[in-house]
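Lecture 7, part B: from sequences to assemblies.

Below are the input chains for today's worked example.
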Amino acid sequence: MTNKKKCKQTINLNNTPSIVTSYSIVGKKEKNGPLGNYFDYSINDSYLGQKSWEKAESALIERTINGVLSKAGLEPDDISYLFAGDLINQCTSSSYGIRNFNIPYFGLYGACSTMAESLSLASMFVDAGYCNYALACTSSHFCSAEKQFRLPLEYGGQRPPTSQWTVTGAGAIVLGNQGKGPYITDVTIGKIVDYGIKDANNMGAAMAPAAVDTIYNHFVDTDRGPDYYDLIITGDLGKIGKEIFLEMIKEKGFDIEDKFTDCGIEIFNSDDQDVHAGGSGCGCSAVVLSGYILNRMNEGIYNRVLFIATGALMSPLIIQQGETIPSIAHAVSINNKME
Amino acid sequence: MTNKKKCKQTINLNNTPSIVTSYSIVGKKEKNGPLGNYFDYSINDSYLGQKSWEKAESALIERTINGVLSKAGLEPDDISYLFAGDLINQCTSSSYGIRNFNIPYFGLYGACSTMAESLSLASMFVDAGYCNYALACTSSHFCSAEKQFRLPLEYGGQRPPTSQWTVTGAGAIVLGNQGKGPYITDVTIGKIVDYGIKDANNMGAAMAPAAVDTIYNHFVDTDRGPDYYDLIITGDLGKIGKEIFLEMIKEKGFDIEDKFTDCGIEIFNSDDQDVHAGGSGCGCSAVVLSGYILNRMNEGIYNRVLFIATGALMSPLIIQQGETIPSIAHAVSINNKME
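Predicted structure of the full complex, as structure tokens:
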């Protein structure tokens, strides 16, 4: 993990694509959490009027994209490329959620790293001059994820203390080649890292080494340290992953504790929301970024943020076959100024 | 579908990224098909020495990437970015297959359009100057796909005449910013198209309208017609999809029949290989492109090829819930000359 690649993992986006606007929708539990007021909209009906949770998650994506377009004052026709993905088998939440928009589409699978993966690609397309506007989007839904990855909800299975609670929510960000920022200045694309964790109820531990690898390479590639950033925030390591992450990155020479938090820790109140190790799911980092972080940047509370979304790339089946959990993390450097 | 977007769907790659080399591995049935001699390697053991078909498909990807790197005379460390995806839930064939290479990774989900999606992104990264080398890869395996999408193999279910046979195979292509070609000159990224087909045993019919939409927009965007190309080849429409496709594109003013074929039709001998409507799966278009087409281009038989991989973006679950099949197609223009 310490070996540097011959090629840098980090790409500097010289044309500094601008975040035009962002939009987030969350469920009731997320609305009742400490960041509740930062989200654009919340739903009370977990079915969103649909007949299944999978269709509900597609409806969530569709509403979120409509929301971000409306907030940006853009039509679907203004967006050249849409980058999206989700956790559900064959990424149907995304494909069914976006099929009515008539926008050229890149389907992604990055598990809970999808917000950083989609944001990186959308930024790069704008930076390279391939389009004026691109859209990055992802979602998760507690019920569709729990049903698919763990147990039927009706079973009411007990969750171990290391487990995380899948966020019901979707976030979308429009990137443009003109705008007042915040700007995407650099992206560091992660490698797959597998430290041999087999417990699918302890994703934080599985994903922490991937986050360490990416942030370490980001610092080395950019010749920056934690001091450069006002905030360094991972996707959904949760409480257990956070401790492992901070210890590992310290061993590699970077003490980032006073700049650091995790979307999975921030989104819920651990004292009374019964989420064990914290939030998770593609939607977790998506709504914390689209709702909370970008609003705080617009207020000037944060000026330089390093956003690192982490994903565990396993399936229930492959875990049943005795496999370990390979993980990945992508980092996006967001700055209120072009620099 | 006939409405043109305000923004073009086609991106002209001015720096004409070059295909450095390609590599393909197929199963026994594919080796025995009419294109058998064009593939780099074939396997006899469908398990590839693994204990499950899912692990076998990961091993297939790993061997294919080792193959393409070795053929190109490159090390994993020379590749800046790897773009891959597959059909299996949470794309585990790709993530477990590439986890040992230590290459920054973009996970994709495009179903059977993945070879064109990964090739487009890899080409664009080289074209934009983000890297010197990028790798595009995808796979499918008859047994892992049949088990997941249809019925247990042991059940021996009858297949309707409209059904297609998932190809066991993986293809990989290295793109570079220097090389003697063939070059990727343009990519046309598809929109999701859903004509209301519900029969998951008739994918060709579901995907044909997406292929029509993409090829039509490719012709309009580039101001080209079928005459420009020596060969126009779709991913895996199969026999039924091919007929629908040719009829629909003719209605839109383009008669391409004498330039046209389909990877799903070419890969098997329909008279004696019992594949019904033809081949399918991410691996189908991947091995036909990596094995057959690029070899024929190197021989000068074809100089200008339009490769259009098509994907059906449904899951077994969402079909059980009564949904239709949204589809997508991405087109890649490949040329022996920079023009």
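Note for the exam: Chain B touches chain A through 60 residues (CB under 8 Å). Keep this in mind when comparing with the next example.
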